[in-house]
Specification:
204 residues, mainly alpha, 7 helices, globular
Amino acid sequence: MFKLFRSGKIWTIPNFMSMFRLLLVPFIIWAYVGKGNIPLTIILLALSALSDMLDGIIARKFNMISDLGKALDPFADKVTQVCVVLCLAFTFPLHPLLWVLLGLCVFREIVMAVLGYITIRKTNRVPHAHWYGKVSTVVLYASALALLIFPKMPFWLSTGIIVLCMICVFTALVLYVRYFVSEWKQPAAEPAAPEPEPEQTEKA
């Protein structure tokens, strides 16, 4: 299975951008929880969101799509989302729905990880991100930024924002389950042929 991730393009700009988003996560936590520096947290989160938007565009435009990128990009998204919601749940003023959102996010990631693994085993293909997953990511990023910028917003407004996130996360999960099941019904892809070794010329 892991040969899938070694085949094709690995050291590409989109993959480096996904790694960059992963490296940003501890700095986001440090800025928000450790330092309580909201402006810095917003800048780091916005930078993460911007890199998430650009890496897909670059991958498609310059033909840098790879199996590793298909796995690394959503993984970076998931780690960032869960960590941001966890930080908000611990520090945002008394909003129990944030814990529900956090539980829903963790549940989704567990289900996605299991179904993704099964899909790779069954089809010999790495599943890729879809538009509904990206919409869910954008809504969550925007909601987190709104809660960070306006921590004293009315309770009804913050509730509406969190409920919207929950709806997007759950809808994306349902659509991804349908996608995985449809993939299982497709014939498995042929394993990639190993690259031919360069011919060695005999010394005269």
